[in-house]
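Thread: quick sanity check before group meeting

JM: Hey all, I'm pulling together slides for Thursday and realized we never actually wrote out the predicted structure for the chain we discussed last week. Dropping the sequence here so it's in one place. If anyone has concerns about the input, flag it before I start.
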Amino acid sequence: MAYRYRVDLQMFAGEKTEKATPKKRQDTRKKGQVAKSMEVSGASVLLAAFFCILFFGGYMRDRTVRLFTDVYINRLSMDVTKDNVMLLFGQYGIEILLLLAPLFIAVFIIALIANYLQVGFLLTGDPLKMKFSKIDPIKGFKNIFSMRSLVEFLKSVIKLTIIGFLVYTTIWAAREGFSSLSTKGPDMIFHFVADITVSLGFKIAVGLMILAVLDYLYQRFDYEKNIRMSKQDIKDEYKKMEGDPLIKGKIRERQRRMALQRMMQEIPNADVIITNPTHFAVAIKYDGSAMEAPQVLAKGQDFMALRIKEIAKEHGIMTMENKPLARALYQRSEIGDFIPGDLFQAVAEVLAYVYKLKGKAK
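JM (edit): ok, ran it. Output follows.
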């Protein structure tokens, strides 16, 4: 029964039920693993493209007409030579760039904004590294039949359904306009087709944007689920960041012993040991030419106080009993500190008495 209980605890500790720590999030971000939906970028770019066509449609139409009419107006009598043809292609290349420049700029800026709003500024080459795990056939087979693959398939079906429905309803609503195109001139036909195209483009872009928002929410949920950690993972991460608690405890213990040893070595330099007499002992030193106030060289309680008095006795350091002063010095001062200002008078009286006994009237 106890063995089964222990196994259950180990299994529970291995379950990834905890939210990812900031360090885990940072590590996965460095590897390029972020919550990102490609549908958001695609829908945003499509919407930006049709907005650009809507606002710069006249500019693009004039540039297109000028590009096609230029041959008939200015190039029919041109000599066909290598230099002339190269110059003509260069000029037409510039015209095409100027024609498409608003569209390219708008799409580029919106793509950057959509990507930044999702993942912020991220520049990493880790996903481009060659990894043999990427060509693992077993892992690839599992990915084909994974939940993510099913979601991607359903997303594609929904996308095609939305686009098909919008195309059908838009064309069906404009069926009377299509039937009357044979009676209209080229300019009217162009305007009709342009209106249908822009309207359909906006409808598809808005529909895909709604789908993109839902996909982004799913990507965030899936990302949070994939980076979850077990309780053991959190403990291991803490050990790596802060060090093993057992090792840190040993280091602190060794530091305490070294500090204690240094403190004991300073006791022979003290002028007086103020005691409780059994519970506290504080070693005081004062050098008027080098110190602004008396300094605490060592302090201890119970066994440590007894040890301080023994060392003082071995080196001929005078011990003075003053219960309230010993307790106050022990509680309110640390080793190496100067004594508190309100205790100057009491300590000065003790030192004066010690100097008098030693014949060092100061």
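AS: nice. Residues 5-12 have pLDDT under 50 and may be disordered. The chain is about 70% helix and 5% strand.
JM: adding both to the slides.
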